[in-house]
Automatic annotation (TrEMBL):
Gene designation per UniProt: echA8_3
Organism annotation: Edaphosphingomonas haloaromaticamans
Family statement: Belongs to the enoyl-CoA hydratase/isomerase family.
Record Pfam families: ECH_1
Domain of life: Bacteria
Name under which the protein is recorded: Putative enoyl-CoA hydratase echA8
Keywords, in A-Z order: Lyase
Enzyme Commission (EC) number: 4.2.1.17
Lineage of origin: Bacteria, Pseudomonadati, Pseudomonadota, Alphaproteobacteria, Sphingomonadales
Stretches assigned to coiled coil: none
An example Gene Ontology molecular-function term: enoyl-CoA hydratase activity
Length: 248
């Protein structure tokens, strides 16, 4: 249900399980991980995560599979690790990742969106994180990403209040960066603009925005950026008043 497609300077990660409104079964997380590997190997300037299902971005985890976890204790761990591995891999890609959200985005679909660097929502987008309606919790790392995006108060309101919000409200609280008439068109515009950036800068900036990890020297990352192969080309292009031609 997940596949990677190259499209000129940028790539597309397409979610395609329309009959289930892109609900993700257990094996779907493995497909997401594989598509992410394909994207990393292709090394596009930017990646757009988009849906092939009309009216749905991602309905969340497949309820048919979730229902089996009440009795399948070992399956709970397998599900958690599969979902975490796939979403963490998407978040760790070294180039910009843009979520184009048109239609419903619920539960694990929000977790998928939060792994992207930028999210834009079309006017028909709807968002909710309602695990409490099912009597379950939400992965800690995804709660952390949600709180980092919207703040602890709004994260609590989404998780505990279980409300469905529209694109305008999602933009107001910071869940998405922009609310636009058509998400995919805006995502493509952003990806085209990002195609002019330096790959080495994107990789370093993403690590710094994410807060890197314990023991990582962000000053060293900043200093090292001046030694990148992209820096001389960036300076030359600026002086020559032309677009830089960075190595891809």
């Amino acid at each position: 249900m997940f596949r990677y497609v190259s499209d000129g300077p940028f790539g597309r990660l397409i979610i395609d399980r329309p009959r289930q409104r892109n609900a993700v079964p257990l094996e779907g997380w493995g497909e997401l991980a594989a598509a992410t590997v394909a994207a990393e190997m292709a090394a596009p300037c930017a990646l757009i995560v988009q849906s092939a299902a009309e009216g749905a971005f991602c309905a969340g985890a497949d309820l048919g599979h979730l229902a089996t976890l009440g009795q399948d204790v070992g399956g709970r761990t397998a599900f958690r690790l599969a979902m975490r591995g796939a979403i963490d891999a998407l978040a760790a890609l070294p180039f910009p990742v843009i979520a184009a959200v048109d239609g419903g985005c619920f539960g694990a679909g929000v977790a998928l969106m939060l792994a992207c660097d930028v999210a834009v929502a079309g006017e028909g987008a709807r968002f909710a994180v309602p695990p409490a309606r099912l009597g379950i919790a939400y992965p800690q790392e995804d709660i952390d990403r949600l709180a980092a995006r919207v703040g602890r108060g709004q994260a609590g309101l989404m998780l505990l209040g279980m409300e469905t919000i529209d694109a305008a409200e999602a933009a107001r609280i910071g869940l998405v960066e922009r609310a636009v008439p058509v998400a995919l068109a805006e995502a493509e515009r952003l990806a085209a603009a990002m195609a002019e950036g330096a790959p080495s800068s994107f990789a370093t900036l993403k690590r710094m925005i994410a807060g890197v990890g314990p023991g990582v020297d962000t000053d060293a990352l900043f200093d090292a950026s001046f030694g990148s192969a992209d820096f001389p080309e960036g300076i030359a292009a600026y002086r020559e008043r032309r677009k830089p031609e960075f190595r891809r």
